[in-house]
Amino acid sequence: MKTVAQFAIGYEQLLDAGGRPTGELPAFAQDAGELTRMYRMMVLCRMFDAKAINLQRTGQLGTYAPCTGQEATHVGVGAAMRPEDVLFPVYREYGTQLWRGVTLTEILTYWAGDETGTNFAGPRQDFPWCVPIGSQAPHAAGAAMAFRIRGEPRCAVAYIGEGGTSQGAFYEAVNLAGARRLPTVFVIVNNGWAISVPASAQTGAETFAQKGIAGGVPGMQVDGNDVIGVRAVMEAALARARAGEGPTVIEALTYRLSDHTTADDASRYRPADELAAAWQREPLPRLRAYLAAQGHWDDTREQQLRAACAAEIDAAVKGYQSRPRPAVGAMFEHLFAHPPAALAEQREQATRYPPPAH
Ligand SMILES: Cc1ncc(C[n+]2csc(CCOP(=O)(O)OP(=O)(O)O)c2C)c(N)n1
């Protein structure tokens, strides 16, 4: 028998865990201002995460999905995209969204159960958070098909967790994008866990990146804690897509340092030594070390940055807390043009017996 097809999965890392370049860095990384901007966004995400968790713990926010540990993946993807591209987020990729103009207040509003938080004032074409796992992939392939038909040089970027890639919707979307060479990038965020299911139990394949191969879509891995590496592979994938060369699957290897959501307690299923080891590879000190080695960062700048981020977060929390409270009936809106009878009845009852005002 002869071999008729073969594949290989590459792995990219441009800054190692100590912040040392593994080779020549790409053009954007020669710009200290740009790298500082990326670092700033990662710190903002980290600090915002802590604040949002505190708000939830004190009854001031609903269930929240943290992003701690995944900031480099999220910011790297956002920094590579163009404003006219369209993002299909899952529920924790705030770094990408903030980079694209979503506000901290909008994020808090959404996690308070108020859908108006998804009515982004900035990137109006971006899709809202979508909790059904895997749904982002076909949405993105469909949007990319529309770009193709309209002749627009835009790309659709779909996020999915490594757990989400077990869904049939992911394979269907990859197949469509591959068959039609659609301008789509599928970013698989492999953060080690799908709630309590470890990535090792999720697939029989060596990598999640190779899940695109059967659909004719090249895949690669990147160190998802290396923001420079993530941005570089993402820029290359977007350039390929824009040039009509088709989709790419990128598996970003990172780690969820937090609980799955504030409704989860990861200490019940996740080994403490694994978590401790993951903190040693986390993304923030890595970029900070590189910036410091280049003479672009020091403790004073770090303190100033943290003070500025804290002020920005406090202002966003005030904006969130002072927003008009949605009417009880709002939770029934945007679901059906003509609500089924059972839902209409619930709506009527909820409106008749509203919860007490806080
Ligand atoms: C279709 C569907 N099935 C199940 C769930 C429940 N659920 C919520 S998050 C989650 C795990 C997702 O893991 P992964 O895709 O790896 O993403 P992560 O949360 O780790 O970022 C599951 C099963 C869901 N939201 N949607």
How does this structure look, described?
With 358 residues, the protein is α/β, with parallel strands linked by helices. It is built from 11 helices and 8 strands. It has helices at 32-57, 71-80, 94-99, 104-111, 136-150, 168-180, 227-242, 272-279, 283-293, 299-321, 341-352, and strands spanning 10-12, 86-88, 156-161, 184-190, 193-194, 197-198, 219-223, 248-253. A 6-stranded parallel β-sheet has the order 1-7-8-4-3-2, with helices on both faces. It has a two-stranded antiparallel sheet with strand order 5-6. Helix 1 (32-57) crosses helix 10 (299-321). It is globular, with a radius of gyration of 21 Å. It starts with 9 loop residues before the first strand and ends in a 6-residue tail after the last helix. The model has no long low-confidence stretch (mean pLDDT 97). The protein binds thiamine diphosphate. Residues 92, 131-133, 161-164, 189, 191, 193-195, 256, 260 line the site of thiamine diphosphate.
